[in-house]
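RESIDUES AND SHAPES:
===
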Amino acid sequence: MKRFVIPLIILMLVGIQNSLFENIRILGVKPDIALTFVICYTFVRGNPEGTVAGILCGLFEDIFFAGAFGINSIGCMITTYLIGSMEGNLYKDNIFIPGIFTFIGSILKECIVMLMLYLTRNNIVLYSALTKIIIPEAIYNTIIVVLFFKFAAKISSRYYIMKPGNFIS
């Protein structure tokens, strides 16, 4: 049961993101709550658990959202891997650190997605996407991280006793 908790939470968040947050847009942008949770989880647990959660998050987003399949998976995987590789070197009790990493991670993931879409479709203006979609979404996600960081830390401590970096089979 323990190993299904995080995938179920991610699936639930992607479902909420796909339904409820479609109507809660600020400046035409909705938050990526699943990515925000996965970044927080990765920040707490590190690699490889965070990277696996990132791949799951991207797969669920690819399944629920239209577009080229696999683009969100690659973006989430790269983002969570980079954040997870820095996990052991960071002070985790300050809420500003996860906020900074959520901001940077959101920009990185969306830039990867937009770049891949640009390379496959050639109809996306990258500068316009950066200023009108990516930066506002990163700000939105950073505000939401205040809620998810405590939740991810609590889930991590409740269901996993192992130290970060040890893969749970």
In short: Helices lie at 2-19, 33-45, 49-64, 71-85, 96-121, 126-159.
